[in-house]
Write a structure and sequence with these properties.
By secondary structure, the chain is α+β, with helices and mostly antiparallel strands. The chain has helices spanning about 15-25, 85, 120-135, 145-150, 170, 205-210, 220-235, 245-250, 255-260, 270-275, 320-340, 350, 360-375, and strands at about 5-10, 25-35, 35-40, 55-60, 60-65, 90-100, 100-105, 115-120, 155, 185-190, 195-200, 215, 280-285, 295-300, 310, 315. Helices cover about 30% and strands about 25% of the residues. Helix 8 (about 245-250) crosses helix 13 (about 360-375). The longest helix is centred in the C-terminal third of the chain and has 20 residues, at about 320-340.
Length: about 375
């Protein structure tokens, strides 16, 4: 079984793949339904997958809808991203205990789960690789992130449909992943047959499939998979023009458009919480009432909170305008300076989960329109 091989896994045998993953001591994480939304959580059975469901996402709205199709991956995106498993919302960094008049500091090194991510969308795969640059770059690598990432088994599910907020084609992050995975799968659900085309990405992926019933993909089966993948591209209507975007945002730094958007923005931080690449955090030190133990914890934070930019004397960004501008310009411009590529992967979650439906693609379009009229 060579890297690059394309094989067929029948739906009825998918549970055998799950069993193989669990037998190799991975914690299997995949999409399932909770609280009327598709979420990523620990699963063990294919019965926990969201089969026969799709999602409807527009600005400020998300809902599940039943379908007659047998697809288990007939939805667009989970309501949350994978980052909460690699970069947990809260983590203890160290604990100090007073003993015999001295403090002993105990760095936190919890047992790191050996995760297998099943059903990663191509844009989400790119987001994980982007966060790698944030947390694994030397010399400031995050040891807990690095450990979880090194042990991670990555199984991608190629997109066969797109939601109204998707614009991954604009960011060159989908709808098909071509590398960076252990296994990549395309679900094909015809009226008379339900199967997956599986592409082997690494030796680890190949080893996993040794105990799973597979057949060699035929040319017809590969063509069907390509047709299903092409549906996603054809369905995508939202776009983001990234040409010279850094220069554009620099020229529009004092644009009145920022005030117009800020008048709608609630500074709720939803966009940063659901974003698969945002990484802002806060560090808090606490002690117990006796003064014998102390802890330092890291928690997710957001550039939309006034306290996040608090320095001695007060907050640097006191207005909603300045905080929204910081988020958008960092995501689409300064991120390129820091990490060599955009911080946006075109998943559209920030649009879906913004209570007032602020759409960053529309914001960039508005800046381009103002920029054109100014220079014409």
């Amino acid at each position: 079984m060579e890297i690059g091989s394309r094989l067929i896994l029948e739906w009825k045998d998918l549970q055998k793949l799950f069993d193989a993953i669990i037998d190799q001591k991975y914690t299997l994480v995949g999409p399932t339904v909770k609280n009327q939304a598709i979420l990523y959580d620990t699963i063990r059975s294919i019965d926990e997958l969201p089969q026969g469901l799709t999602d409807e996402q527009v600005g400020g709205q998300y809902r599940l809808k039943e379908t007659s199709a047998p697809e288990a991956f007939g939805y667009t995106l989970s309501a949350q991203s994978w980052k909460r498993f690699l970069f947990p919302p809260e983590a203890r960094l160290w604990k100090a205990t007073r003993k015999n008049g001295k403090f002993e500091i105990e760095p936190d090194s919890p047992a790191s789960p050996r995760y297998a991510f099943f059903g990663v969308r191509p844009c989400e795969l790119k987001a994980i690789h982007i966060q790698d640059k944030v947390f694994i770059n030397k010399p400031y690598a995050d040891p807990n992130y690095s450990l979880r990432r090194d042990q991670l088994l990555m199984i991608v599910m190629q997109c066969t449909q797109a939601g109204s907020n998707c614009f991954c084609t604009s960011m060159n992050t989908g709808p098909r992943a071509r590398n960076g995975f252990d296994l990549a799968m395309t679900e094909v659900a015809d009226t008379d047959r339900h199967y997956f085309v599986v592409e082997i990405g690494t030796d680890r992926g190949a080893a996993l499939m040794q105990s799973v019933p597979l057949t060699q993909a035929t040319e017809k089966e590969l063509q069907q998979a390509t047709q299903w993948e092409s549906r996603a591209t054809a369905m995508m209507t939202k776009t983001l023009d990234t040409a010279h975007i850094q220069e554009l945002l620099d020229r529009q730094f004092e644009s009145p458009r920022w005030d117009e958007t800020a008048s709608r923005c609630l500074s709720c931080a939803n966009c940063t919480m659901v974003c698969p690449t945002c990484f802002c955090s806060d560090v808090e030190d606490t002690t117990d009432l006796t003064g014998t133990t102390a802890e330092r914890r890291r928690r997710w934070d957001s550039c939309f909170t006034a306290t996040h930019s608090h320095l001695h004397g007060g907050s640097v960004r006191t207005s909603a305008k300045s905080r929204y501008r910081q988020w958008l310009t960092h995501k689409l411009s300064y991120w390129i300076d820091q990490f060599g590529e955009s911080g946006c992967v075109g998943c559209g979650r920030c649009i879906t989960w913004c209570p007032v439906g602020i759409d960053l693609t529309e914001e960039v379009r508005a800046f381009r329109e103002r920029d054109t009229s100014k220079t014409s």
